[in-house]
Amino acid sequence: MANTVSAKKMTRKIAKRTAVNRSRRSRMRTFIRKVEEAIEAGDHGTALTALRTAEPEIMRASQKGIVHKNTASRKVSRLAARVKGLQVAQA
Question: pTM for this structure?
Answer without folding.
Answer: 0.88
